[in-house]
Amino acid sequence: MPGRRPRDEGAVVVEFAVALPVVVLLVALVLGVARVGGAQVRCIDAAAAGARAAARGEAPSVVRATVAAVAPTGRTRITGPAGGGRGRTVVVEVGERVAPLGWGVQVPVSARAVAAVELTGEGS
């Protein structure tokens, strides 16, 4: 071809071969961060829903079912007067481990929600 030097003909292929893995790695990194961020939001929502249910005096099994409906995997810990206790606040903690790329290293995400116990008409 006129105007081209013979050693430049394979340069585009080499540049593409070097750049493609970097682009794929960056896309995978962005998707992994989005997956962990989504799991964190689910944990926050689940902890808030569980704290509201526990503050209303729901039984611990109902609180766990409420949390499981929002964040179906992970662990739940309820501290406080769930099920009709007389404390002032209730704490619900939700956590799970997320593999950002669907496999490999797992990242722990968790949330904690505190709610004031709602007074009912019984004995108040």
From TrEMBL:
Transmembrane is among the record's keywords: yes
Pfam families: TadE
Record bears the keyword Transferase: no
Coiled coil: none
Annotated protein name in UniProt: TadE family type IV pilus minor pilin
Organism of this sequence: Kineococcus gynurae
Keywords of this entry: Membrane, Transmembrane, Transmembrane helix
Segments forming domain TadE-like: 10-52
InterPro entries tied to this protein: Rv3655c/TadE, TadE-like_dom
Residue spans crossing the bilayer: 12-34
